[in-house]
Amino acid sequence: MQRSHTVCWILVLAITACFSLGAFPSSVSAEETPAAATDQKDAAEKDAADTAKSDTEDERDGWMDRVDKWFGAKVVAPLAAVLFFDLGAVARFFGLGTEELPSTGLPFVVIWLLCGAIFFTIRMKFINIRAFGHAIRLTKGDYDDHNEPGEVSHFQALASALSATVGLGNIAGVAIAVGQGGPGAVFWLIVAGLLGMTSKFTECTLGQMYRKVGADGSVSGGAMHYLKDGLAELRMPVLGKVLAVMFAILCIGGSFGGGNAFQVNQSLRAIGQQVSWLDHESPDGVPWVYGIVMAVLVGIVIIGGIRRIAATAEKIVPAMCGVYVLTCLYIIVAHWNHIGWAFGEIFRGAFTHDAAYGGALGVMVIGIKRAAFSNEAGVGSAAIAHSAAKTKEPVSEGIVALLEPFIDTVVVCTMTALVIVITGVYDKEAFPDYAVLVERNNGAALTMHAFGSVIWWFPYVLCVAVVMFAFSTLISWSYYGERCWTWMFGPRSSLAYKILFLSFTVLGSIVTATNILEFSDLMILSMAVPNILGVALLSGKVRRALDDYWRRVKSGEIAPIKK
Amino acid sequence: MPWLPKKTVVVPIDFSDESFTALDTALELVADASHVRIVHVLPYMEVTDPGVIWEAIDDDSRRTHAEDALKERLADAKYKGIQIQIGFGDPGREVADHAESSKAELIVLSSHGRTGLSRLLIGSVAERIVRLAHCPVLVLRK
């Protein structure tokens, strides 16, 4: 025990040491960062301001640049080389279709996610469509039996999982997708959301099947459990263990990246557009203050153990989703004469070869990447939250879980996407001022401008929304990460994890959006590698359970509980 | 003739078969089952756990559940009179503290025999109890 603790602390110290050594090397000098003023229309004026700003930034913010550069070169680049291996390179090697290959490359993990989702959808005979009505009835509580094992109701489990999924990925990620891939990316985003519903169904059913209910009634479940125990059942214990450990490590990384630093980074970019002293681009900006405040607030919850704050943050998510969707609808209706055009652009962009957006294949890669990043389908993280649901029918929670990508991607992401497309802020020619935001992956800032184009106070609504979404996502993802960490290192080392988690919260306010996005993509999307492989191997078991469950629902054996 | 006629013996139980074997061994050492105190230690739950967030589960309900589960498992007549204690926190520390406060003469436990990486990372509860205990500890090998 003593040793385990020591090992964890050594780990924390080593990582901290790496950061401090790598972040402040004496030989590295800060290069000039071109700063842009988005509000200035005159190009000459802008150039002058740029130079002035980068000069001051060099002296004042050199340390922030160094942290960023170190993070990009030492953490992101080596990981990307392995995890985002470009299948296009293989095709080029064999001289296949080099003209059609997109500039984004064909990252292995994106193809993997898509193939997985299609395979599950066919294997489960389009459960995402045929069980949709049943999913809503389950979530409403029509089938809830309080005597069944587990912790929370179907609705509560879904809400908890949603608080992790709905975040800046929906607001900023989608804007990045449209910025990089044009309106066509929206089409693939929605397709990936619909197919992802079955990936989510399959993994969350497994999460329930292999969860462990303790003598005290508490539940622990998730991909690490079904990978290890499920594959052991299939006489592949070694593969199961390897995949489970791989998943747990990547999930911890995901909780530092997409579930944490990305949220802080993008919400800060959005707020920076309204509050100049938090703006990265402003000469007097102190953006790291936001990171510290966020880390303190999250620390109060996860280390201080203040339940009420966590509960409020999580319970408010469905309401915030509602407010966000209504605001988006208002903007869309205000541009009603553009709606037809926007849909036309989305369909046209999805299938036509537009070199500016990396070609048709590139648009698809971008759409799928951002959808998976947002709804986490195929990634396996949500199985941790869904395994807490009170039920003796694993399939029923899987069916509830398939609503998650629907709400997250097909509803919320689509709203953001339509707002971005309809207002045209993604278009470099129509809005040259915003081109720099697209270039630097400042998605949330782009959404902010789209919101501001209709009613002057809408950006403030968005400010509140991004902070709430970011905070609740941090809280929920810290739970996912902590589960994986204690699964590997035992519960005594959980404090070490929490300290690391909070340091990434601060880091998120310092590092540039592009590096954070890349790191977050790497961790979260790569979780799909062990997860989809394991889930595919176990899909036969899910299919049998599903067929049996569906037969009993149809025959009335499983009927709504009369209250 | 029992080894420890009137002394208290503490047995940590984690619901594994090995821990119940340790309990049987402890019963052979004492004159009466009422001299045996079993301790089951639960980890604290994270406030970010969905069950805690939605107030569906708390330490009281967990204690009741665990006590019921233990009583059900120990329904046999030979276990009659055993005292049950539920603790929260670090198992090693809790068991040692409980042994001290109940003035136990001996702690009997089983070792799961973790090896390799998981031993390095998670460590051994048995080892920790031996280190922290105020009284002799009997560790049964698997």
Topology:
The complex is a heterodimer of chains A (563) and B (142).
Chain A: H1 2-23, H2 43-60, H3 62-83, H4 87-93, H5 108-123, H6 127-130, H7 132-140, H8 154-165, H9 168-181, H10 184-209, E1 212-213, E2 219-220, H11 223-233, H12 237-272, H13 288-302, H14 307-334, H15 339-351, H16 359-375, H17 382-386, H18 394-401, H19 403-423, H20 435-439, H21 443-452, H22 458-489, H23 494-508, H24 513-526, H25 528-555
Antiparallel strand pairs in A: 1-2
Chain B: E1 9-12, H1 17-29, E2 36-42, H2 50-53, H3 59-73, E3 83-88, H4 91-101, E4 106-110, H5 116-122, H6 125-132, E5 137-140
Structural notes for this entry:
The complex is a heterodimer of chains A (563) and B (142). Chain A is an all-alpha fold. Chain A has 25 helices and 2 strands. Chain A has a two-stranded antiparallel ribbon. In chain A, strand 1 (212-213) and strand 2 form a beta hairpin. Residues 16-60 of chain A have low confidence and may be disordered. With 142 residues, chain B is of the alpha/beta class. Chain B has a single domain (9-140), classed as HUPs (Rossmann fold), CATH 3.40.50. Chain B has 6 helices and 5 strands; from the N terminus they run E-H-E-H-H-E-H-E-H-H-E. Chain B has a 5-stranded parallel β-sheet, sandwiched between helices. In chain B, strand 1 (9-12), helix 1 (17-29) and strand 2 form a beta-alpha-beta unit. The longest helix of chain B is centred in the middle third of the chain and has 15 residues, at 59-73. Classes of the chains: A mainly alpha (563), B alpha/beta (142).
